Amino acid sequence: MAGYEPLILVGTIVLVFFVTIISFAKRYKRCPSDKILVVYGKVGSAGKTSLSAKCIHGGATFIWPILHDFAFLDLTPIPIEIKLEGALSLQNIRVNTPSTFTVGISTEPGIMTNAAERLLGLSMTNVQELARDIIFGQMRVVIATMSIEDINADREQLIDNITKGVEGELQKVGLRLINVNIQDITDESGYIEALGKEAAARAINDAKRKVAEQLRAGEIGKAEAEKEQRVQVAAAHAVAVTGENDAKVAIANSDSERREREAEAERRATSAEKVQAAEALKLAYVAEEIAEVERANREKATQMANIIVPAEIEKKRIETIAEAEAEKVRRTKKGEADGIRSVMEAEAVGLKAILTGKADGFSAIVDAAQHKAELASLLMITEQMPKLIEEQVKAISNLEIDKITVWENGRSGDGKTATADFLSGIIGSLPPLHELTKNVGVELPEYLGKIADRQAAAEADEAKDEQSPTPPVEETE
Fold it and tell me: How distant, in Å, are the alpha carbons of 161, 323, 342, 346 from that of 336?
């Protein structure tokens, strides 16, 4: 149980708090727009005088328990039927003035306090009876100060007097006058009825008099109108004749002036037309001249656009193509020159390498021959012998010999046959090896063969040919 005591305490505090809040909320009162909230009790004081109530219209306030209490005053309008009969007027004539008044509780601050003091707790019937008594008394007072004529003739003044007298008394109990509606006013002696008949007879007599006056004025007016009519008609005829004559003269003068003006206008118009025609023709010629100049300029521009501009464009195109072709040729030639130069540079490098190698080889050969010129030459020629022999063989290697015909009568004096002589001649026609080397300034040693005296050999061959008969034909394939 000891553990639950704090929880019970907290619950009690919360419950008390919520009960207090709910109680305070219930005591906070709001005033509707059609009512006056009256708070009474200890509501304060004004100086040494304690206030009996506090009136609130269109707001809210808190009602403290024990100190304050509250109630509502209804602002609903109250209609009151007043059947006033036998009220004495200023001439001591009793009149009946039935009317309807509409009153209600005022919302002005001071008058609301009067209503709270004198009407709070009363029912609507009680308030209505109280207002009826006040209105009865004030209407009798107002009617006693007015004559029958004023009451019957000036209803607005009557309502104004009643309003002033009644409203002051109603405010003392917290009410205000909303509307006054005076019904038919009568009296017991028939005075008002007589006044009505008098007024009606006077109105009828006045009407008859006015009718007679109007008839008389009408006849007089008619006669005056007929006289005036005849006078005015005669005057109008005279004026008309005079006017016609004056009009005829004016017409004649006007016709004359018109014809003169027409002639002058015609002359001016003709002259103006000719001048305008000349000006128009001049302007036309000027316009045609300008048009021809513009047309020439347009034709010139057209020819320029159709001939010169295309020619210029074609010229630019040809120049551009030519420049492109020239640039292409220049670049091609430059590329070819660069290629040839690269090839020649490569060949020069290779040739230089070959010559350098040959020089090194020659230097080695000379060193091997112990710097002896003949021995070095012999070594070099020996090295080149296969190539020299190859060149001699090439001289007859490409000969196409299908058939060889030799006319010879057997053997010659030296024991050779004709065929052998023919082959010897072919071999002899080859360039001798000694002559080839001699042409380059090299003399071969004798063990490589000796050059025979060709002239002596040729003469001996001719002598043999003359002595020998014609040889038979021998074909060798």
Answer: 138, 19, 10, 15
